[in-house]
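Tokens in:
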């Protein structure tokens, strides 16, 4: 079963397939790794965030989808998206997946140096 990321925006759901989400976060990592990591954290659940940083999980379970929320980091992520990520994406002349060599080429690059993105557990069938 393919995974998806669902964002709740003003009481409307925005669904992004997991492969697209991973591709965007990977691209963001190429633009600015530290800001991409904050964006990644801002789009994670609190439970996943706590696992990734080895923090106590008291009160949080895998079935709890509450977002990880640190106001300053959310604001930094929004600024990063507006000022760096979108302008860089708009300047791309070809489809990102083609740029990275298709599914298998992208996965090879992704797994060559995943860094914090290893938490995604991305697989070939996610696109």
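Residues out:
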């Amino acid at each position: 079963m393919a995974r998806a990321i669902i964002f709740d925006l003003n009481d409307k759901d925005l669904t992004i397939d997991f492969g697209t989400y991973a591709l965007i976060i990977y691209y963001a990592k190429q633009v600015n790794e530290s800001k991409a990591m904050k964006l990644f954290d801002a789009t994670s659940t609190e439970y996943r965030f706590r696992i990734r940083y080895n923090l106590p999980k008291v009160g949080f379970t895998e079935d709890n989808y509450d977002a990880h929320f640190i106001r300053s980091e959310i604001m930094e992520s929004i600024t990063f998206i507006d000022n760096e990520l979108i302008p860089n994406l708009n300047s791309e002349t070809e489809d990102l997946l083609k740029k990275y060599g298709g599914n298998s080429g992208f996965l090879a690059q992704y797994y060559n140096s995943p860094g914090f993105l290893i938490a995604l557990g991305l697989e070939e069938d996610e696109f």
